[in-house]
């Protein structure tokens, strides 16, 4: 199993703790940023990590921000991403067993690193149960499809190729 992991500035320290946990279990991962404590915008990191998952090079993603909420909202905008913001292990495990979540979102200002590690461990060890849940997951996909906006090609924006650097928040912003 290969993990795509990312955080904003608020989630940076917890992400480092989770990387240490992944190292200890020899679970391969790639860190898609942010890499400094400077304020940055969580939707950009969420998009980068989710794109990596959709590329099929990565099996699951972990996203960390202050609450886990912004990351989960951003990630769930992307087709075929099922992101679960969890602050205890039971929901994380069930999000995999029943909802086939492929992204776990954690709030560094909500859960301490010890609990976040237990949540992550439970989620990584859990397996999707399929069967009756597949019908419901298929329904989620159909909702996505019903509301999908037809793709209109656009000129690439700088943030598409260099998503973190441009439009940096003003210095001192949280
Ligand atoms: C950053 O201050 C904070 O808003 C962000 O990390 C996250 O909690 C948003 O959902």
Outline the structure in words.
- This protein is an alpha/beta fold and 174 residues long.
- It has helices at residues 12-24, 42-54, 69-75, 89-97, 113-125, 132-146, 158-161; strands at 3-7, 29-31, 60-65, 83-85, 103-107.
- The protein has a five-stranded parallel β-sheet, sandwiched between helices.
- Helix 1 crosses helix 5, helix 2 (42-54) packs across helix 3 (69-75) and helix 4 (89-97) packs parallel to helix 5.
- The N and C termini lie far apart (33 Å).
- The structure holds D-ribose.
- The site of D-ribose (RB5) has 9 residues, from helix 3.
CATH third-level topology: Ribose 5-phosphate Isomerase B, Chain: A
Query: What about the largest sheet?
Result: 5 strands, parallel
Query: How many angstroms does the end-to-end distance come to?
Result: 33 Å
What's the Cα radius of gyration? 16 Å
- What ligand species are in this complex? D-ribose
Mean pLDDT: 93
Shape: globular
Widest β-sheet, arrangement of strands: 2-1-3-5-4
Give me the count of strands. 5
Strand content: 5-15%
Q: Write the CATH homologous superfamily.
A: Sugar-phosphate isomerase, RpiB/LacA/LacB
Structural class: alpha/beta
In DSSP terms (H or I, runs of 4 or more residues), the helix count works out at 7
Under the CATH scheme, which architecture would be assigned?
A: 3-Layer(aba) Sandwich
Query: Approximately how much helix is present in the residues?
Result: 40-55%
| Total domains | 1
Would you identify the regions where 5 or more consecutive residues have pLDDT less than 50? none
Following the backbone from N to C, one meets helices and strands in this order, namely: EHEHEHEHEHHH
């Amino acid at each position: 199993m290969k993990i795509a992991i990312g955080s904003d500035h608020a989630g940076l320290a917890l992400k480092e703790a989770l990387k240490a946990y992944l190292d200890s279990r020899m679970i391969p991962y790639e860190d898609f940023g942010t890499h400094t404590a400077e304020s940055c915008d969580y939707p950009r990191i969420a998009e980068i990590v989710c794109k990596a998952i959709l590329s099929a090079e990565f099996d699951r993603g972990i996203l960390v921000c202050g609450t886990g909420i912004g990351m989960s909202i951003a990630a769930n905008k992307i087709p075929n991403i099922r992101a679960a913001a969890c602050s205890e292990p039971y929901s994380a495990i069930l999000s995999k067993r029943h909802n086939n979540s492929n992204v776990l979102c954690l709030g560094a200002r909500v859960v301490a690193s010890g609990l976040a590690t237990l949540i992550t461990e439970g989620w990584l060890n859990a397996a999707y149960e399929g069967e009756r849940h597949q019908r419901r997951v298929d329904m989620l996909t159909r909702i996505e499809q019903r509301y999908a906006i037809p793709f209109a090609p656009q000129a690439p924006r700088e943030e598409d190729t260099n998503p973190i650097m441009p439009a940096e928040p003003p210095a001192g912003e949280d």
